[in-house]
Structures are given as structure tokens and as C-alpha cells.
Amino acid sequence: MAIFLQQILNGLVLGSVYALVALGYTMVYGILGLINFAHGEVVMVGALVSLSVIELLLGANLGIPAPLVGVMALVIAIGVCMTLGFSIERVAYRPLRRAPRLAPLITAIGVSILLQTVAMLIWGRRYHTVPALIPPTPHTFAGATITNVQILIILVSALIMAGLMGLVHFTRLGRAMRATAENPVVAGLMGVNINRIISATFVIGSALAAVAGVLVSSNYGIAHYYMGFVLGLKAFTAAVLGGIGNLPGAMLGGLLLGLIESLGAGYVGDLTGGFLGSHYQDVFAFLVLITVLVFRPTGLLGERVSERA
Amino acid sequence: MNMGDLSVHLKTAVVGVAAATALALAGCGSKDEAIKIGHAGPLTGPVAHLGKDNENGVRLALDEANAAGVSIGGKKATFSMQSEDDQADPKQGPIVAQKLVDAKVAGVIGHLNSGTTIPASKIYHDAGLAQISPSATNVTYTHQGFKTAFRVMANDAQQGKVLGDYAVHKLGAKNIAIIDDRSAYGQGLADEFEKAAKAAGGQIVTREFTGTDKTDFNAILTSIKGKNADLIFYGGMDSQAGPMMKQIKNLGISSKFLTGDGGQTAEFLKLAGDAAEGAYASSPGVPLDKMPGGKAFAEKYKGKFKIEIQLYAPYAYDATNVLLEAMKKADSTDPAKYLPILAGITFQGVTGNIAFDENGDIKGGSISLYQAKGGKWEYLDTVGG
């Protein structure tokens, strides 16, 4: 039982991160119908920028308390990622907004590779160790353990998701975002500045990516120019699983994917008597995805894809 | 574009290439003999730090040979390196191998990983080109009947056997959990370890798997926790072993941790941090400070590249020097001429004495064991050799 509880906790931590990153994919898709493949790299940039800030502040020996260093790193990482998200949209997507749908898809992949390469040049190829600002003491209850950072991941993700839902449903900006998603042309005619709304979407999504990057890197204690790729792929999968374009769907998809992976890796081997091992973890996760998509092509919470020009 | 256009472009290209080749050939007629030595390893991706390390080893050996002045076939030889990035990807291995063959390199040092070395070895074999891997340890590499494949490091059968034995007899492990990263190296080492541990009387409670791009091992570790293993063996590289060690401690698992040479690195200690304490790892050969020329090599390396040796650079350096030695002795850079000499060579390198058996494996490869203590690898013992 303790083992089962531990697997659920593992899944929740993993899933919270997937959900946080998936929100970025789903927001952009909801508004533009574009899959922003560079989003995973923004997570990576967030992690590496925060790492550099932490190293700089700790190295300068200014006597700033560790939690404050963490907050400063987070704030700067968010700032850098917001600027990056804004620039990506402005440079790589906006000029192609009326181009065939494949064109922005290719520029998205291009931006992703570009960011990876630039990060490799700046931070090098090696795995960086992220200093533990929060003591990694594990807490044990009912036989399962969880660290401070993992608790923080679950809490912060939940708070951010709630905040985002509030923003989209109860503010002027949120209403404008929903209107733009519904029909950009009509929204524009009604006086919504759709360029500003789209920029805002990218900026908010990138801020979430920065938070996810900081959380992931402090949880595993590593940061690396390549870390955004796999994470981005998983988060994108989570967004599709939940219904891309749908915010609660991204959260549900993220948490589900985390739990499926964790339970899959933990139990597939035992349940099949060793016939299938834990390396079928991803196969298992994607099998679930395919099954869901066969019966619900729009994902778990996705609605009928709105027709748009 | 219509076909007429295309053929015109093709013609221009062909003429261009022909002209370039003619120029290059004309260049060869001069007094100095320009000799290209190929290096292949991952220069991008998760293990790029190790690929670059090997490349540095090769560069150091070539620069020294150039400075010392070597003459082959009565001409002064100038060595240069053509380094190719195989991304540690088995699909890329043969592609960059073909590139090196087409570039007419005189011999190849590489690749880093077993997964790329094995498929690439077929290309070198077909081209009749000598290949010396500094670090590929999977048994298959030298057991394909290729007379062109050599390595300067003990293979996984030798290492896995020592590790399995050590786990049961010296570390007293009874219930053993094995994880590997499904790479040719990790899987090969884990298989050999499993055989040896079983033969020594240990029981394998579970075999788990992960991937070379993974950072989260909580699920498989939790599963291992439920099976009360007293030792966890990992077949894989430091970039996974480090975070894995952290997660082992965070999950409150008290099992001993043992891994192979892929984890016996400074990087592992850095990535695992305090959690590294007590971990065991092995490495083929003997530690740098116990190598005959280890200390001097470390100083030269640091002086030139301003960074610490990561892992296999001394082996890449030795592999290069062995290759050059064979060329010198044969007085030729033609593989057909120097290969028989290479196969029978005896050479005193910085890592130890180098001679090959009939497969191309190093003779009498020894394995050393280490334990992480206070943020350092403490030397325990050397087996074999």
C-alpha cells in the first residue's frame, strides 16, 4: 500500500509539471490553432537562466538568504522567458499568420532547434548541477516520502492553474482572449486588439514555462540545454490527451499522463510477470493516448473544433 | 525547376568537385605529407561532454606528434583531425563513419558509445580502415570477425564479471535489483553483471529499464523499494546515474548502489551531490594517478584545454598514439600495410601497456573499483590485469 501511495505521489509530481507546460501549448493552440513546438525550449531557457542567476548570487557571497535567491532567480527567469515568448511570436509566427498552416509549424520547429543550439553555445553541453536552495529533506507519511520541492511543485502548479482559470474567465483580458479564440476577425471588428491579445497569450504561456523550468530543475537538481525537448513532447501529448485548446483539459491530461507513466513503469512488469518491463512505460502512455483519441478524437475534454478561416 | 535546369546545375557541381579534387590531389604532391586522422563521438546531446573529452585526447596526441616531427615514407608527416559528431545515436554512427571513409582519413579513433561504435565498425571494416575505440566496451564490437576493430579498454564481459562477483562476495549483496538504460553499453554491462552475480549466488529480484533521455526514475525506484533489494546495480551513464542516486536517497531507499565506468565520473559526483556518498563504481584500467603516465598527462591536458579530464581522454590519447606508432613502424599510412603491425603491437601508453588479442580486445584489461566518499572517488581495489 505504501508503495502504491508512493507511485501516486510520483505521478502527481510528474503530472503537475506536465500540466503546467501543457497549459502553454494549449493556450497558444486555442487562440492561433498553432502548435508552438518551441514552448519546451522556453522551459529549458527558464531553467538555465534561473541556474545562472543562482550561481551568480551565491558566488558573489552577498549573504542573501537562500529562499530570497530562489525568488530572485524565478523572477528574472520569468522576465527573460516572457521577453523570449514575445519575440518568438513577433519574429517567427506573426509574419506567417496568413500563410498556409504548415509554414508556422516549420518555423516553430526551426525556433526550437535554434533555441537549443543557442543554449548549447551559452551554457555548454554538460549537465549543470542546480544548487539545492530548499533543503531536500524527505517527509515520510504512511510509508511514502515526498520532498519539500515536490510539495512546492504540486502547490505552485495548482495555484497557477487556478489563477489562469480566473484570468481567462473573469477579467477583461481573459474575455478578449476567449473572443479572439472564437473568431479573431470578428473579435478584431469588435475593437479587440488581437495582436496584443496574441502577444499576451505568448507572454503568459512563457511565464508558466519559466516557472515549470525552475521547478523541474530544482526537483531533479539538474539543468541541461536538451531538457526541454522530451518535457515539451510529453506536455504536448498531455495537452492532446486532455483536448488541445482546452485549459482544464491540459491540466487533466498532464495529471493523467503523469499517473499513467508512474503506475505503468511501476506495475507493468509485475502484472505481466516480467514479460513486459518498465521500458514499456512510454508505450503504455501512448497506448492510452491512442485509445482515447480513437474514441474521442478531440481529447478528453476537447469540444468540437470550431471552424475558422 | 525542370529537369534541364537540374542537369545543368549537376554538371556545374560535378565540374566544381572535379576541379576541387584535382587541386587537393595537386596539394598532396608537396614535400609534406598531410595525414587526416578521423575522430567520431557525440559532440552534441546528453553525453557531449564525454565526446569532447575524447576529441581533446586525440587532438593532444596529434599536436604532440606534429611538434615532435614524424616522418613517414621519407616525408615529413603533418597530422590533422577530422572530428565528426555521431550524437551518440546508433543511426548516426554509420553515417559519420561513411563521411570519414569518404574523406580518406588514414585511421579512426572512435566512437565513444558502444551503440554507435558497433554499426560504424562495419563501414570501417568494408573500407579496410583501422578503428580504435577508446571507450566502447560492448563485447560485440570486437567479436564480429573484423580485423579492423580494436579497443584500448577492457570490455563489458570482463567488467560485468568483476562487478557481479564484487557485489556478491565483497559487498555481501543477496537481493539485487538491476536497472539499465537500454543502450548497447548499459544493457550489455547489465547482462554480464546479472550472469556473474547469479553465478556467485546472488538473487536478482527485479530487472528495470529506463532510457538515455530520462531524468525521472521515481517510478522504477519505488517499485524496487517494494522488493527490498539490498543492492541496486545501474548499467548506464553518469547523466542518469547522478539524478538517480538523488532520487534513491529522497525515496528513503537504503540499498547500496553500484554502477560501471559510465558512472565513475566527476560529473556523477556533482549531479548526485551529497546523495553520492557511499556509491560504488568501477572503471576499466587503473585510476589516473596509478597510470604510468597519468599525472603528467593530466597536467598536459589541463594546460592545453584549461579544463579537467572528464573520463576517457587518456584512452583516446593512447589509442591515437598506438595508431600513429603502427603507421611509423609500417612507414606507411595505408591501412593495408599498418594493420598487421597494429594487431601485433606492444606499446607503453599513459594508461598502461597496450597489446591486442586475436579479437582486437586489449590484453589483460584490468578493472578498478571505487567508492564515493566526501565528494571524491576513493580507490578501493583493482581486479585482473
Features:
heterodimer; A: 309 residues; mainly alpha; two-stranded antiparallel sheet; 11 helices; 4 strands; 4% strand; B: 385 residues; alpha/beta; seven-stranded mixed β-sheet; six-stranded mixed β-sheet; 12 helices; elongated; disordered N terminus
Topology:
The complex is a heterodimer of chains A (309) and B (385).
Chain A: H1 2-32, H2 39-59, H3 66-93, H4 102-123, E1 128-129, E2 138-141, E3 144-147, H5 148-170, H6 172-182, H7 184-189, H8 194-220, E4 222-223, H9 227-242, H10 247-271, H11 281-295
Antiparallel strand pairs in A: 1-4, 2-3
Chain B: H1 3-28, E1 33-41, H2 48-68, E2 70-72, E3 75-85, H3 92-102, E4 107-110, H4 114-127, E5 131-133, E6 149-151, H5 156-169, E7 175-180, H6 184-199, E8 203-209, H7 218-225, E9 231-235, H8 238-250, E10 256-259, H9 266-272, E11 280-284, H10 294-305, H11 313-330, H12 335-343, E12 347-348, E13 353-354, E14 367-373, E15 376-383
Helix pairs in contact in B: 2-11, 3-4, 5-6, 8-9, 11-12
Query: Terminal Cα separation of chain A, in Å?
Result: 53 Å
Gap between N and C termini of chain B: 64 Å
Oligomer: heterodimer
Question: How many DSSP E strands of chain B?
Answer: 15
| Beta-strand fraction estimate of chain A | under 5%
Mean pLDDT of chain A: 90
Say how many strands of chain A there are. 4
Tell me, briefly, the overall form of chain A.
globular
Q: What is the strand arrangement across the widest sheet of chain B?
A: 8-7-9-10-11-14-15
Q: For the report, how would you describe the main beta sheet of chain B?
A: 7 strands, mixed
Number of helices of chain B: 12
Major β-sheet annotation of chain A:
2 strands, antiparallel
Strand content of chain B: 15-25%
Tell me the greatest interface: A-B, 42 and 38 residues
**Going across the major beta sheet of chain A, what is the strand order?**
1-4
Task: Please provide the ordered H/E string of secondary-structure elements of chain B.
Answer: HEHEEHEHEEHEHEHEHEHEHHHEEEE
In percent, how helical is the residue content of chain B? 40-55%
Outline the low-pLDDT stretches of chain A. 305-309
Name the average pLDDT of chain B.
89
